[in-house]
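Q: Convert this sequence to structure tokens.
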Amino acid sequence: MQIPTDEEIRSLHLEHAPTREAFDLVYTHCRIVCDLAERVVRANDLPVDADLVRAGCLLHDIGVYRLFDGSGGLDHARYVRHGVLGHGLLAGEGYPEALCRFCSHHTGVGITRDDVHLQGLPIPVDDYLPATPEEEVVMYADKFHSKADPPVFLTAGAYTRKVGRFGPDKAALFTAMVDRFGEPDVTEVARGYGHTVLD
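A:
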């Protein structure tokens, strides 16, 4: 599989971003997730394809661009669709399924078909769960940074509380991931971006 370079991915973001502000928000988040994922891989000496993890991180949120309206506002009510929208965007660009899946399989700690049914989510009924170590690392690293206004980093405790709104089973899944991968030092990374850390 041909893995796109960082510059090719950046160009794809620029092509699909509706505004410079949207590009800055989404692409910066993807770079932060990449930094965090690479720290997780190094800290645990994980036997993963590091280039695939990097590309997955840099591409995972590209579908967010399709949720911006004409005035630059983000459709928060349908935000859960950003994964399947990104999957479709990358597939339309000819990217292989292994890369498209980083978009559709990183939301929360995974979305099951039961979640789609019970919550009435506006996405096709399916399981959106990580199936490879690379997908799992990208999903995990993504939990430590939010594109909120303004963007913020989250500690493991802060994200556990956030995901707990969707049920104790989701919080338990994330806690198990923290136990397995450890918590990256978000404070150090946050300093480089000037973002606050939510504890």
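Residues 6-140 form one domain.
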